[in-house]
Amino acid sequence: MKLKSIARGLSLVLIAVVAGCTTGKDAAVESGTRPLGAGFRYSAYGPDWDPGPAYWLRVGQEMAARYPGAVGETVWIVGRLKGDGTLLNFPVDGDHPLILGSETDENEAALDLFDRHGFRVWLQVEPGHAPVEELINIVLDRYSRHPSVVGIGVDVEWFESTEQPEGRAVTDAEARAWLAEAREHDPDYRLFLKHWEIGKMPPTAREGLLFIDDSQILPSLEAMVDEFAEWGRAFAPAPVAFQYGYPSDRPWWSGLDDPPGDIGRAILDRVPNTEGLYWVDFTVLDLFPPQAGEGSP
After folding, report:
1. How far apart are CA 178 and CA 201, in angstroms?
2. Residue 28 belongs to some domain of the structure
3. Cα–Cα distance between 130 and 128 in angstroms, integer?
4. Distance between CA atoms of 178 and 135, rounded to whole angstroms?
5. b/e string for 266-282 if b means 16 or more Cβ within 10 A?
């Protein structure tokens, strides 16, 4: 009986310790538990033309090869702003006036290829006024079977963006509800939130979240890294990620020996909680020219 009492007491202490670690304000997830993801942002409207899945796989692999131990990764946009809502690039059942579908699926071939090559994929939506939880459910109902999919993200610039062109700030309750909706499909899924203003992010919610900065129109590499370092500090030790390579910054990045790698390494030197680096599709064809067999305009 004494041994049982001691064991029970130890168990209660352990339970109390665990409970103390998981209640109250969200505990931030320490960065560094996952390999760095390096790759690209993809949208139907970014590049002048789409060279096809094999091209995008190669771009991700070449980006990842620039950083030891990195994994190919993409922010893959499946829902773009249309009117007051969202146009998804796959067929959709349902009649919500703010959630429109397309005649054909534009993602399956790429996701199948990414599955076979150990890629990591974040599926992104630009919601407008469409209900975000419903969007998450529609997207993941269709694509959660793909092992390459690691989570879903919201571009906050386009969150209720008809009243505020730069998006409405996300509350803690909204971030947690969106993450919970994603985890109805897979308990390991995470949620990213993207903007360039720290104030648009939830004030305290951190568990399960990745914070992506897509700032641009910066005068130099040093200015970019300074701004990105501020973003990293604001959310540390939670993970952060960055999109770069915009045309507005071409005047200075075009002078670098290796723009995708040089910028990424400068970020990693200053932002230790970096978990993702993505070259944007607006200039990807210039930096990663398509090769024979990868499609043509």
Report:
1. 13
2. no
3. 6
4. 10
5. bbbeebebbbbbbbbbb
For residue 8, how many other CB atoms are within 10 A of its CB? 10
Phi, psi of 80 (to 5 degrees): -115, 155
The string of pLDDT tens digits covering residues 128-180 is 999 999 999 999 999 999 999 999 999 999 999 866 668 999 999 999 999 99
Residue position matching structure tokens 């560094």: 32
The number of residues making up the chain comes to 297
Q: Could you tell me if 182 and 152 are in contact, meaning their C-beta atoms sit under 8 angstroms apart? A: yes
Please tell me the predicted confidence (pLDDT) of residue 164.
62
- Distance (Å, rounded) from C-alpha 74 to C-alpha 209? 16
Whole-angstrom distance, CA of residue 106 vs CA of residue 82: 17
Domain tally, the chain: 1
The range of the structural domain enclosing residue 126 comes to 33-287
CA dist 153 and 147 (Å) reads 17
Which amino acid does the sequence have at 237? P
Cβ–Cβ under 8 Å, residues 72 and 120? yes
Report the CATH number at residue 241.
3.20.20.80
Task: Give the contacts of 286 (CB within 8 A, at least 6 positions apart).
Answer: none
pLDDT digit string, tens, across residues 173-210: 999 999 999 999 999 999 999 999 999 999 999 999 99
Angle made by CA atoms 225, 122, 238, in degrees to the nearest 5: 50
